[in-house]
Design brief:
The chain is α+β, with helices and mostly antiparallel strands and 174 residues long. The chain has helices at residues 3-12, 23-48, 80-103, 113-126, 138-159; strands at 50-60, 66-76. Helix content is 55%, strand content 13%. Strand 1 and strand 2 form a beta hairpin. Helix 1 crosses helix 2 (23-48) and helix 2 (23-48) packs antiparallel against helix 3 (80-103). The longest helix is centred in the first third of the chain and has 26 residues, at 23-48. One of its GO terms (cellular component) is plasma membrane.
């Protein structure tokens, strides 16, 4: 399967989460999505530019004093092109990843796991738990490692050879 056939298949199965997807279908589409996002970001930067903003951060030190740091940061002004590309490719990219995991005999729900752990980190932080490792939040370190391990595992599975026989998700992709 070449790049055009992979993109055509993914767009034809825009929101199809059943069945299986072969490695080339997934990886060619992933490459196209990354290339489109790079092009869209370049267009955003070209047409909308970057603005420099002043950031001030105050932190309390262990001895009871405070320290203020001033920084200048670059912030992208607007990202309408990247937003459109992301909105158009999100569902088919999720669907092909889902089917790709099916091809290896795994549930597509594994694609949600790293984001679920990330959401848990945000919820715990909002609830007042210290999740920042720099502030002594070991919980944040543990959750960060869990997220990292989940992403590594997902990439490994997505790159693995699919089942050669029919599995719980159907026959091998043609």
């Amino acid at each position: 399967m070449g790049v055009l056939e992979a993109v055509s298949t993914c767009l034809r199965k825009y929101a199809t989460f059943s069945g299986r997807a072969a490695r080339p279908e997934y990886w060619w589409f992933a490459l196209v999505v990354v290339a489109l996002n790079i092009a869209a970001t370049a267009a955003d930067l070209t047409f909308f530019g970057v603005e420099m903003i002043e950031v001030e951060r105050t932190e309390s030190l262990a001895d009871g004093t405070t320290r203020t740091m001033e920084m200048t940061a670059a912030q992208q002004s607007a990202s309408p092109f990247a937003l459109v590309v992301s909105l158009l490719t999100f569902l088919p990219f999720l669907a092909v990843g889902w089917r790709r995991l099916h091809d290896t005999g795994r549930s597509g729900w594994w694609l949600v796991a790293p984001n679920g752990a990330g959401l848990l980190t945000v919820v715990l932080s909002a609830a007042g738990f210290s999740v920042a490792p720099a502030l002594g939040g070991a919980l944040g370190l543990v959750l960060g490692l869990v997220i990292l391990v989940l992403w590594i595992l997902l990439i490994y599975w997505l790159a693995s050879r699919g089942d050669t026989e029919t599995n719980a998700y159907g026959p091998p992709p043609a």
